[in-house]
Each structure stands twice: as structure tokens, then as C-alpha cells.
């Protein structure tokens, strides 16, 4: 009731003061919005509008529903509405905010603007078709919004190590630092991939199987190793992610090896994969089975060597 009546009040004051007609509104779960037929509303206008609606609340203006049993009653012409259907029958309900507004409405409302307690206009969002959505909370929702905001503020003060007034700057610095660190991690992983490939290729005893897991790696890390080794006679089983949980896997080598072992490795790791003129790779849920996958690969390659 508070949000609906608040919408009526904001709508009539916005139109009378600035000529912004309301085209629709949304109750919302926590925040309501009013679609105003204007492409722009200034911060100053929002402040003036908020002051005006709260002044009306303090004036304790009655809100009364009125039933008209004759749809042709001349008084109905004064009510704000989109018009009645030609085939309408029965009484017409008008909500009257004394001295401010008369609107056709069948919803529930408070009986006095004082029951709204307070309206807070939160800001604007861009609407459809060159319109503006004005966000607001009224009555009990104002208290709930303040409570949530305070809890968020407390959490951010703990995380950002600074007062509310500095949160935007501190968050911006944290995001930039995170992006910078991520770039550094990507660069280090590339270097590490090159190093792992180099270590494998320069071993005194040439091996035909490379099995490697790196928790912090990604698809680029695994593919970089395979591309750097650049030898299909080498079978690579690479995994990245949580050793006991989900992650990524890659199997490379001879086409026949990939076709035979790819689906089996995916099954062991509880994953799904595919290949397209390259390694067999995909996502998995059981990296805890990577030892079993390694055993499968090594036994298969050993069997091929024995046969040859």
C-alpha cells in the first residue's frame, strides 16, 4: 500500500511541477520504479521533487477511494486515466488525494499520506523509448534500505580499509590493482609453460609421455606447453584446477592416441571434451582421478611400444 500510494503521489507531483507524465510503474521486490515520459531528469529536479512529495506527506493529506456508479458522471472527466473501455459496465473507482490528484485505480492504498512516513528517490535508470525510470522507496522500505546499506557499508569498510566517503576511490584502486596482478599472472603462466616445455625437451633421456598438473593454470597454459613441444610423438596429459575437484584437462599426441584415449580420459575425470584437428580437451569434475588417467595413458603408450 505504501509503495502504490507513493507512486500516485510522485506521479502527480512530477507531472504538475515538471510536466513529466507517468507511462507505467513497477512495484519491485525491494525497490519500486516509475517510468516517466522524459529522456532526462536533472539531479536538481530529483531533489526538488523529493522535497515536494515529503512536504505533502508532512501535511497529512487524506487519501480516499470514491465510487462512481455512472460512468458518464461529469466528475469522472476530472480524473486522470487512460480512458474506460466502451463496453465498461458497473461502478468506477477513483482514488482521491485531497487537493492533489484524482486517479482511476482499483488497488489498495493508505488512508492518509502521513502513513507513507517518508519517500526517498534513489536515482534514475535509462528507460525504453527515450524514457526515464525513477527509482524510489517509501515507508517501511526506507528503513529496510537503510539497514541493508549500513550492512554493506560495514562490510566494505572492513574490506577496503577506509571510510564510506573513500569507498569509490578505494574500490577503483583495488580493481586496477587486481587487473594489473591478473596480467602479471598471465605473463608468468606463459613463462612457466615455456619453462616446463623446455625442461621436458632437454631431458637427457627422451620421454614420450608428459603428465603435468598446475592448479593455477588455464587452457592457454596447457596449449602453450603443447605448442612449444610441437611433437606429436609425445603424448601430453595436462590438467589445471583444484586437485580434488573441478578443472580442465588436455590430451595431445598422435591422432590415433587422441581418438582412443580422449573419451576414456574424460570419463575417468567425469568430464566432457572434444577435439578439432588438435588436442582433446574439456572440462571435468574429478581431478582426484588424474592418477588413474595417467596410468591409463602410460599403459596404453607402453603397449604401443611393445607391439612395435
UniProtKB/TrEMBL annotation:
It holds the Pfam family tRNA_SAD. Signal peptide: none annotated. The keyword Disulfide bond does not apply. GO terms for cellular component: cytoplasm. Residues 92-137 form the Threonyl/alanyl tRNA synthetase SAD domain. Transmembrane segments: none annotated. It is found in: Cytoplasm. InterPro entries: Alanyl-tRNA_Editing_Enzymes, Thr/Ala-tRNA-synth_IIc_edit, tRNA_SAD. Its cofactor is Zn(2+). Its EC number is 3.1.1.-. GO terms for molecular function: aminoacyl-tRNA ligase activity; ATP binding; metal ion binding; Ser-tRNA(Ala) deacylase activity. GO terms for biological process: translation; tRNA aminoacylation. Its main location: cytoplasm. Keywords: Cytoplasm, Hydrolase, Metal-binding, Protein biosynthesis, Zinc. It is an enzyme of class 3 (hydrolase). This is AARSD1. It comes from Mytilus coruscus.
Amino acid at each position: 500500500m505504501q509503495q502504490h500510494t507513493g507512486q500516485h503521489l510522485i506521479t502527480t507531483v512530477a507531472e504538475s511541477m515538471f510536466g513529466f507524465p507517468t507511462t507505467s510503474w513497477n512495484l519491485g521486490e525491494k525497490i519500486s520504479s516509475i517510468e516517466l515520459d522524459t529522456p532526462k531528469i536533472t539531479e536538481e529536479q530529483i531533489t526538488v521533487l523529493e522535497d515536494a512529495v515529503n512536504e505533502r506527506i508532512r501535511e497529512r493529506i487524506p487519501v480516499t477511494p470514491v465510487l462512481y456508479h455512472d460512468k458518464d458522471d461529469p466528475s469522472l472527466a476530472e480524473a486522470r486515466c487512460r480512458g474506460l473501455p466502451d463496453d465498461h459496465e458497473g461502478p468506477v473507482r477513483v482514488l482521491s488525494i485531497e487537493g492533489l490528484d484524482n486517479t482511476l485505480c482499483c488497488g489498495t492504498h493508505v488512508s492518509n499520506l502521513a502513513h507513507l512516513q517518508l519517500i526517498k528517490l534513489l536515482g534514475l535508470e535509462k528507460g525504453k523509448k527515450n524514457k526515464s525510470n525513477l527509482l524510489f522507496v517509501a515507508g517501511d522500505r526506507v528503513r529496510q534500505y537503510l539497514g541493508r546499506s549500513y550492512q554493506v557499508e560495514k562490510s566494505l569498510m572492513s574490506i577496503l580499509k577506509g571510510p564510506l566517503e573513500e569507498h569509490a576511490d578505494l574500490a577503483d584502486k583495488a580493481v586496477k590493482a587486481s587487473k594489473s596482478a591478473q596480467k602479471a599472472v598471465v605473463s608468468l603462466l606463459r613463462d612457466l609453460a615455456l619453462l616446463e616445455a623446455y625442461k621436458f625437451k632437454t631431458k637427457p633421456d627422451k620421454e614420450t609421455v608428459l603428465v603435468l598438473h598446475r592448479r593455477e593454470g588455464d587452457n592457454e597454459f596447457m596449449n602453450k606447453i603443447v605448442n612449444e613441444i610441437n611433437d606429436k610423438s609425445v603424448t601430453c596429459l595436462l590438467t589445471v584446477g583444484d586437485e580434488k575437484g573441478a578443472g580442465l584437462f588436455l590430451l595431445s599426441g598422435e591422432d590415433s592416441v587422441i581418438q582412443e584415449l580422449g573419451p576414456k580420459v574424460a570419463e575417468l575425470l567425469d568430464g566432457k571434451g572434444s577435439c578439432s584437428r588438435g588436442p582433446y580437451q574439456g572440462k571435468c569434475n574429478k581431478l582426484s582421478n588424474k592418477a588413474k588417467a595417467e596410468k591409463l595413458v602410460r599403459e596404453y603408450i607402453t603397449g604401443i611400444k611393445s607391439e612395435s
